[in-house]
Model the fold of this input.
Amino acid sequence: MGATYHVLNFKDLNPADLLEHDFSTDVLIGLSQMPKQLASKYFYDKKGSRLFQEIMELSEYYLTGCEFEIISEQKEKIYLEMAGEPFNLVEFGAGDARKTNILLEYFQEKGLEFQYIPIDISEEAMSALIELMNRKFPKLKTEGIVAEYFDGLKCLNNTEYRKNLVLFLGSNLGNFDKAHSRAFLHNLWNILNNGDIVVIGFDLKKDIDLMLKAYNDSKGKTAEFNLNLLRRINRELNGKFDLEKFRFYAGYDVFSGAIESYLVSLEQQQVFIEKISQSFIFDAWEPIHTEYSYKYLESDIEELAERTGFLIKKQLYDSRKYFVDSVWSVNKQSPNTLEDGR
Ligand SMILES: C[S@@+](CC[C@H](N)C(=O)[O-])C[C@H]1O[C@@H](n2cnc3c(N)ncnc32)[C@H](O)[C@@H]1O
Done:
């Protein structure tokens, strides 16, 4: 058994997909737009993945502690959904899977038969995870896939078992805007079988200062994490960003319900990126949008499940009700509920 991973072969994708997955193309398109933007999926190079682990240790970043508590104390409720039939445990954006480890241990203790399929865009994060799995769970069959979420979905057709448990933890879904969340969940619904289980972590709307502090942490780790994206462009695309000339800013939009993260140019400047043969002009105080982190009401979660063809089976809250791991099942009995992911 043991753990291995493979990088999804982009030659298998059509040209439109290929375009989407090119870091340099995305940087070119993102910095040519008004307002400028860079996608948060590119945060996670080696240094970015390490910085995110440090963010998870911060008490201000309450999300990790809440979800850790939920999984530690309510793992049996997830186990009860899966007892009976062998299954694939698929995890989108697995990262270091530190919360998932609790479930893996528990499922093994309970004698469940399953294989683990972590999917993550970051090869650095995946190779560290596979090393950990070989050390900690040598008997568990683990087949990691380095891929973007939407491409990862396409790999789920050839899995070992019929039944699936899909994890999407850490409020990763909150990085998608409404349209992309629906599209992703609807595509997931299409690939899964009736009765499959999906567990999604949602960060709930709460005191605004508390949410803001999670992103404007006192150690400046989130700022470093965002600025590292410019460092990555410098290293991989031979860019000439001076990190001292940008600052991080995160604010909360009460109307959309998202923490929105930016890198703001501190002066008027021109930055050349050699690999894309392009200079970009920044005005003083011009922002680059880097990330959405949507927060949810319970009614938002109910609406999302209903519109994408899922039934909510259980809501697993932490003791402060800051966060919920929402346990859904795939409902293919009443197609009227579906709206083509719109
Ligand atoms: C915020 S971390 C969360 C990790 C873990 N799920 C947790 O809850 O601790 C996000 C992880 O998802 C991965 N990721 C981000 N965007 C992605 C995308 N579009 N496709 C695939 N993986 C992605 C990152 O590489 C990172 O490991």
Observations:
- The chain has eleven helices and 14 strands.
- The first strand starts at residue 3 and ends at 7.
